[in-house]
Amino acid sequence: MRLSALNDIVDGGFAEVEATIGDDAESLILFRDGDDVRAWLNVCPHAGRRLDWAPGQFLKSKDGHLVCAAHGASFELVRGDCVAGPCRGDALRAVAVQVRDDGVWLA
Ligand code: FES
């Protein structure tokens, strides 16, 4: 399943897409890092809220962390580990994606 065009995501930025995983419709966070994209479920491990404050609008700290809009948990963007805030030590759930043909696909 194709999720996005690579160039629809700003380098260093985020996008939100809907995808069916298993039998469930899920909201995903896509993060672009050059020619690479990483993805996680858009579900915060703290209280299960979405991390964006409006659809597709994610906060990034000056340290380069993704910040949950609900209560401010911060996540590093390699593994999705929570490095500060109420769920420190927990992590976002990674979703396997791959970049090919200028698109981002579920792996
Ligand atoms: S739901 Fe994300 S910090 Fe509380």
From TrEMBL:
<feature type="domain" description="Rieske">
    <location>
        <begin position="1"/>
        <end position="106"/>
    </location>
</feature>
<dbReference type="InterPro" id="IPR017941">
    <property type="entry name" value="Rieske_2Fe-2S"/>
</dbReference>
<keyword id="KW-0479">Metal-binding</keyword>
<keyword id="KW-0411">Iron-sulfur</keyword>
<dbReference type="Pfam" id="PF00355">
    <property type="entry name" value="Rieske"/>
</dbReference>
<dbReference type="InterPro" id="IPR036922">
    <property type="entry name" value="Rieske_2Fe-2S_sf"/>
</dbReference>
<keyword id="KW-0408">Iron</keyword>
<keyword id="KW-0001">2Fe-2S</keyword>
<protein>
    <submittedName>
        <fullName>Ferredoxin</fullName>
    </submittedName>
</protein>
